[in-house]
């Protein structure tokens, strides 16, 4: 203390007394009104389970009078109520979700759906019953009575359905804000209707009068980049008006390190010196903020020195130090250069880096983050998807913990990859039902081919198919010959056969299998009999050729007839009686019945089915061209498998190759699509309780998870060798696969399923079998004989006796005998204790049956009597009435579960030393838990050499489950700027075992970080001293250096489109010396992006030029978009809510129809595509389209077609501009000058306004300006409607989000350059034929109509070449030598300041797609495309030709001589690399009329501001008068 008191006055005497610190703040809000935290918390709970959602709703029906009215009390009550339903980790997750406002979008999506319902007037909450609406509780009964006459309301997957609702009853949707009295009143009414069974109740959030405040968002980054001041690009216009949001910013950083002083700690230790410490801190900051340039030798070790500073701090503070150093690096760099690096840090880091490179592919300087072994990609995963992952992991870890698994075992179990691999299952093709048309091993046709399998190892050219006389490749086609598709499939088979492809081809004709069918009447049967006859008379090849001849007679689109068969037979065998071959008494019926039986037995889906080596093809691969390609590909792929087998000695020449293939582990007797389906649902078996099914009164009160636990607790099992249960076991053997068979065992369907399950169980040591009865009739002694007998036997008899007795019970004759009154004891098996059995059987207590029935209804969602199979928690069912699920299906199911998960889990649980009966249960429960997780990338086992010197380590709290977090980072990279704040939040949120390994680069030659950065992220909601919410999460830059010029950029999740909405400063050019106190930048989330990929199913190609629209029922077209050829990509701007996606009226929907869609919220076969945006995460859909039958030869982008889009696009200006554009008489399309331009920063916007004025002064043609909205300032957007009205032009603000798959630029200037060239084909509607791009800093001196009408001679665009007349600039003409000279080969290098684009031609030749493709390749190299917008079209000059415009179209003083200026049609203010003259100075000097234009615009701006001020004063006066008037009335 004494030392500090001595040091402080000394330092403070040096401190200069300057004004208070200046700051830059940034906030981001939603466009929609604030959503109540209560409703957001309910959506968090809904993701846990619908039961928790409704428990929370019930507990908070009317919350208004239950807290003391402060925001903090309201928040704490919500957390407390939710906490009663959640674990402590989940409560922390809820707090984080509320801080992120992650569920605001979900709540608002319901609000949008409600607004489309048009709420009844005067209702703050209302019912909608099949479209009829009321808020009168008394009227509900009447609406329910008439409901069946109206169509049912559409329900979304995110809807909240009240548990216990009768699904067949009318749907009542209550739109209300729960927690309010109105909700409570209506809720109680509708709940009573649900209990009567007369309604299905759905709740949707709805606020009648939302609060006007916006939602403040977090989860984004703000970068303050230092701009180059080589060319002065700052506006000299003075900033006017007071700024908004000038919040006083406190310094709450717990560390707050400045030059080695930890001010956060000093303030805590010496609160009485707070003011002096503040002064000292300010002085130290100002002395470091000078940002003295570093010498190259000082930069070399910056990465290691920064790491050393971080590692020198305590583990508690290290992450704060890393955050502060990386986020303020430009000002910290000088002090970091003085840090000495311990050689041990370098040595250990070097050892670790070898491992990083070998195991993770990380180079020095790279970053990576791993959560429980899963790689988190920092570039693509936003905070919302990371939050979802955290929740999912927490759920699983808590589930494993509740199953009494120790913490150290949990991470081992988590690392198991239990998701089904993409193994292709195959069926056995060694079946006589297959008619093979050739055999490579025996046919003479192939006798010249080598026979030895060693030939596979002989080297050949890539892609060559080896011709070896072995049946390595077998193609089986199962088809109905009377269908239209057969001809195409057979022609592919013929092509393979005729071209000597080494492929054995087999045919299975599935035709009628009736005994007395007449081939003279049935074409399919006729073909089979003819085939058999010809094969018997000659050979299989002749029979196949005859079949081909039959199909060659059929016209396109026709089907096989008996006449086709007869003609071929008569021609080939003229002396044979055809009816004797084809008729009823034919003896050529070989394989006819067997073929149908084989098809049914394989379990394949609808015909046709094509199999390669027994593996079925996907349906989309059956297109003839696709089939050919895929088959050749499979032959090449499988050859490598055979080569390996031959090399390892597994396959020799004397082996039967087909036997070898069919003995592979992926071959099963039957392929059941239901078992192999990708979408799977699982029971939650992770609970633990002591409840059982024999106490129905208790069981009925349990929630879903507890019911599943009670059923598992009560289950007795049959196994192959004996029976294990919770109270006794006959053999110490873990059974890793558990089947629960669900059905009504007093009905044949249930008994058959159980019989097949028992038969399978008797063949496998891995299986145990339990039973759940799902009665179809009301319970009585008559309707439950078999079910009760099974239960009684399982409870009272030894393992084998029970098993044998139950097997008897599953037989139909037993059931029939019981039905007719035979005593159950008659069926007792030897050794049974009949008396004990009878006592249990005759017990009148039906509790277990009632519990089973309730479980089937409430948890398994089965109707009465429906059957299902549950395997290790996976629900397969409900099975259809006549659906086959037999012994082979149980085998398939067992093999999948055993291979993918059960065996792995069993081996882990074996090491834990758990008793056997509990171990089998544990395998089942762990499998259900792990398999229910969404499929993610494999978890990595991460290895490091050491972690003593070069890693920051934070150990977890003992005893609790923890997240294992490993980060690898170079502390002087952009990744470090994002990662440090993320890790700090993670540490506060959950228990972590955190290790941050430094991964530094040596020998740096330039400053590694040239920007300041803030990541806006808080672990929970914060409050002010008075209990009100703090003013929203914000990015705060304090104590910024005064001299540099900054530009502000937002780094948001991929699907967010944000815009600057309020600030008086130029965010592109922030100069702190000119700032009074605070630069407050306010941004708004304007749109959430809906992205998609679209393909034409017939061609497999994207339908270029296809247009989609997005809207609602009342406004079908709100936004639209054009499909790119690159990946068939499209994007649509939306906001939370339910949206309808359609093809645009016009050529799009005339030529195409929607074929299928994926990732949407409507069924895949539905024509109406509904997409619900209800969160902040990215949403990507896939749409397949198909040309209509009569439009097969038409093209969307043909020359002869026009689509008049102007009406729609004109209507869009409302949304784009925020102010109505003056309605003008509709001009002929060709008579409008469409001019595109873009600008960023106040100076360039000033130039832009002058450019517009120069265009308008020189033309009589109507003008429409198109501006890129992404980077325009709020002042420009506010002013442009006034200017449009004054000068009589149209305008539109267009925007496009840079697609995530296209290489991202990080510098704002390069992003803007990219927008000039990369998206020309999708930025404008198809109706715009030609667009002129004019740079903002240009002055136009002629009528641009002349340029629009200029003949481009077939080129898609025209540019002006660079002038070459100013000789003194020759040294700067880079295109005259090196790469450009050789690439251009005598052509001109063109300037991108002015160009004209023929959009029709541009789209027709896919120029945009070609340019993006070239950009993608070149932009990976940071040294290429230094002038992106200019280099790219010049680089593509050979693929996308440029028409050179006459030189007078663009004059620029830098490159053109003074003599040519008099002919200039436009003058561009190019930068001059020799003089570096500032733009404003050059403009006044070079262009005589520039100052006049500038003054004219300024006068008009002043006029607009004065009018605005007058209007504001008038509005204020009116409001005051009204207030006085109301006050007077109150007094009266």
Short description:
The protein has 50 helices and 50 strands.
What does this protein structure show overall?
By secondary structure, the chain is α+β, with helices and mostly antiparallel strands. 38% of the residues lie in helices and 17% in strands. Strands 1, 7, 30, 32, 34, 37, 39 and 41 form an 8-stranded mixed beta sheet that branches. Strands 44-43-42-45-48-47-49 form a 7-stranded mixed beta sheet, sandwiched between helices. A hairpin with a 2-residue loop joins strand 2 and strand 3. The longest helix is centred in the last third of the chain and has 42 residues, at 1490-1531. The chain is globular and about 110 Å long. Mean pLDDT is 82; it is low at 1-19, 241-252, 723-731, 1200-1228 and 1519-1532.
